[in-house]
Amino acid sequence: MALNVKTRILFYSKRLSIYLVRYPEGHKVVPHVDMVSEGRLYKLNCVLVKPKTGGEFTCEKNVFNLFGRVILFRPDLYQHRVSKIEHGNRWLLSFALTQN
User: Fold this and answer.
1) Alpha-carbon gap, residue 10 to 57, rounded angstroms
2) CATH topology of domain 6-99
3) Is the sign of the CA dihedral 46, 19, 51, 53 positive or negative?
4) SS3 at position 72
5) Confidence of residue 2 (pLDDT cuts 50, 70, 90)
6) Which of helix, strand or coil describes residue 93?
7) Nearest to 66 by CA among 93, 38, 39, 46
8) How far is CA 44 from CA 54, 70, 79, 85, in A?
9) Which of 43, 55, 65, 91 would be 49's cystine partner, CB 3.0–4.6 Å?
10) Domain Prolyl 4-hydroxylase alpha subunit Fe(2+) 2OG dioxygenase: where (predicted)?
11) Are 57 and 50 in contact (CB under 8 A)?
12) pTM, rounded to two decimals
């Protein structure tokens, strides 16, 4: 579902990418695993703005999760999702690191 998701690429290289993403009300991310062609993928997601209701991130296994705001996980190994955003927007600063 791509209900006006706004993604701004702040930095992009072979090993590190940084994105600022706005997920609008009504959006959800279905359970999935991110595919990588080689190596290991780590994501550090910083939730800058939480929606008033909904938009909760869940993952089968996190490296760490600080108060649902700063989450480090392996999206290439573990299924993850975001519940439907009922009210408000979700702003995310996401760092993706690929390690060979």
Assistant:
1) 22
2) Jelly Rolls (2.60.120)
3) negative
4) strand
5) low
6) strand
7) 46
8) 20, 7, 15, 21
9) 91
10) 20-94
11) no
12) 0.91
